[in-house]
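pipeline/complex-builder :: batch 7 item 3
reading input block
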Amino acid sequence: MWLKFKASIQKEFLLLIRDKAGLAILFIMPMALVLIMTLLQDSSFKAIGEKQLPLLIVNHDADTFGLRIIEGLKSSQFFKVVEEIEGQKLDEKALVKQVEDGNFQIGIVIHPQATHAIRESVKRKIQGQFPDDELFALDPTMTQVPAKVDIFFDPVTKQSFKQVIISALRQYASMVEANIMFSIYAQMFNDLLGVSVSMDEEFGSMVVFDQQYASTLKSNTIPNSAQHNVPAWTIFAMFFIVIPLASNIIKERDSGLERRLRTLPGSYSAILVGKTMVYFIIGLLQAVSMLLMGVFVLPYFDMPSLNIGNAYAPLLLITIAVSLAATSYGILLGTVATSHEQSSIFGAISVVILAAIGGVWVPTFMMNDLMKQVSQLSPLNWGLNGYYDVFLRSAAIEDVFQYLLLLMAFMLSCLVATFAYNRLKRKT
Amino acid sequence: MKPESYIWIENLRKRYKHAKADAVHQLSLGIDQAEIFGLLGPNGAGKTTTISILCQQLTATSGSFYVNGHHYQHDKEKIKKIIGVVPQDIALYPQLTAYENLKFFGNLYGLKGKILKSYIHRHLERFGLLDRVNDRIEDYSGGMKRRINLIAGILHKPQIIFLDEPTVGIDVQSKTVIIEYLKELNKKGTTIVYTSHHMEEAEQFCSRIAILDQGRIIENGSPAQLIESYETCQSLEDIFLHLTGRKLRD
């Protein structure tokens, strides 16, 4: 039995190292996939979080409101304020054209006298508080003209971007209103009581927002896009081993080798286990290479490095379980599929579907309730959740045990189905 | 019932799923030890199916068989250990060398170390392939592949060899080497069960033949006896055509 197992491993190893294209598929392509997808997902991730969004601005209000908006947007980590193109100051028409052409997603025009309009509006509100007092009598010549800011959006602009920019502008407007209101009241105190009131700092920074990641587990790992993307695409790539593995099994069957092997003493399962073992090790090597790439290569592409934490035992167990699940799925596929075409098309599409519902592309928290339920059926989701727990929460083995159990159950189901199918096929 | 021959087949029947007729129908046959037994028949007669069942590749729909007294179901492993199978397909790994292929199959038969090396060396030398031992099978000619295909099935010195058209598609030289070697093995006591479309080859090679058609044995005996019993036939081929007709088979 051991000799048969060993011979099978040696044979598979030799076949693998002689197949250069196959090796490329097994190692280079998954690494390229992880890198490209992480880069793409990272930029998308940053678009609503970390990446600075270019913003065109034409400011006709050379007063507090206009200046405060520009100053606020410039100091924000979300926006990159652009007021000139090729050294030329923009006018409203040029701004609209730039947005219309898709060169910028958002353009802002601050109309003249915006600060003056806010100031007048605030004065009006204050005067409205004291209708009977002569001192605060409304000036009948004052007309209420709102401060106007036009925002131009590219039609493809995400709703989230729109919300972010509108919220930011509202915040700056409120701060300016508050400051104006304070300065008017200060002037009033000075005029009525002879008390000088001054403001040391502007409104807006009175509440401290302390951002923390909720976790009952001890972790020093700061989540970043690599923590999400690298494990997700690593699992996706690991499952793609089903295609070369299934192809290998079909090739063996079509060439008559499988029939010959079945006539030999001992169980055919030993040969199959040997094959599984080699592809399982390939899966582990794939995972190691892709995770190392996340740690060492991603920073060269201006991306955060993957922090694998220090929960090494759970990390190893999850990786082993994912590799076993992927390999056993490949064996089932190779056994059931009747041709290379069938196995490669079905294999690829099924992995893509399992990845899609498993939260590789779209995180499960963004899915609707039905899809959230469905996602729990995908082995890629189990592996992904396990990796998240390990990387983001420094989970212990018992924390990822449920995912290990599910992945092992998936593996056993595939192997039992393979065994049953083989028995049935030999009888018919 | 106690087996009366070395290979004893009783009412063997095989019907494939969705097939309208049996591929092998109530086939009963006895093959003696050290016989060279030929299973002849047109395409679809049931030759390969019969051999596949005997060497445990397929499961029979009904019937039973014994090999050297071992029951086909209860003693599967014992049967597998004493048989060697040479399939019609070149069932080898093209990307591996001849040595690597033979080492793999030798290991699967339980051979290892110096014994395995010496067996491989001896067979390759006998079949004129020693100088190509480290070449990949994909670089071999059809005749060379066929010879390695044979060696992979007989390397472990089986008591019974099942050969499914072992000389198909090869030149006269390769065919002669293969047939001569099989005769040598037979002289040493190896039982050979073989299928072929080459009537002349079967006539010279086999000690006994059975002609199959539509899953049934329609004639059985030594080539000489058969030729004698059909007065109008000069050769095995004449008998074959006489019994199976000239209608094309698929």
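note: Chain B touches chain A at residues 16-17, 52, 55-59, 77, 80-81, 83, 85, 87-93, 95-96, 100, 103-105, 107-110, 112, 136, 152-153 (CB under 8 Å).
queue -> next item
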